[in-house]
What we know:
Layout: H1 2-11, H2 15-24, H3 26-37, H4 40-57, H5 67-89, H6 100-113, H7 117-128, H8 133-140, H9 144-166
Helix pairs in contact: 1-2, 3-4, 3-5, 3-7, 4-5, 5-8, 7-9, 8-9
Amino acid sequence: MEKIELAKRAIAGNDEAILALLKENEDSLYRIAFAYLRNEHDAIDAIQELTYRTFKKIYTVEEPAYLNTWLVRILINICLDMKKKQEKLIYNTQLEMTSASDENHFEIIDFIEKLPNDQQELIYLKYFQDLKNQEIAQIKQIPEGTVKSRLHSTLKKLRTLIGKEEY
C-alpha cells in the first residue's frame, strides 16, 4: 500500500516522492538500460533522460499502480532511440575479449541484434530482466497470448540464426 501512496504523491507533483520512487527502482531501471545499450555511460545517460522525462511528464500517469510500468516503457523508448542514433553513427565496432564465456555472451548478443527491434525487446525483457509474460504484456500494451506467440516465434528465429552460423 505504501508504494501506491508514494506513486500518488509523485503523480501529484511531489518532487521528493518522485526522487524516492526513482531511487527505489534505480537498480532495475539501470539493468534494463544496460541490457539494451550494453554500455555503462549510455545506460547512465538513459537513466538521466528518464529522470528528466519523469519530472516533466509524470502527471500524465492515470493509474498509480502502473507507474513502474510507465517508467519501464519510457526507459525502453529512450534506449531504443539511443540505439538508433548509435547505429547511424557507428556501424562496426570490434571488441576483444579474453575469456571464452565473454565471447559466447557477446556472440549471443550479436545474434539477438540481428533480430528486428521488437523481437530484441521481447528477448531483453523476458530473459535479461526476468519479467513475466503478463508484465511484458502490460509494458508492450498487448495481450499476454500475443507475448507468448511472439516469444515462441522469436526464439525459433534465433535458433535458426544460431544454427546457420554453426555450420
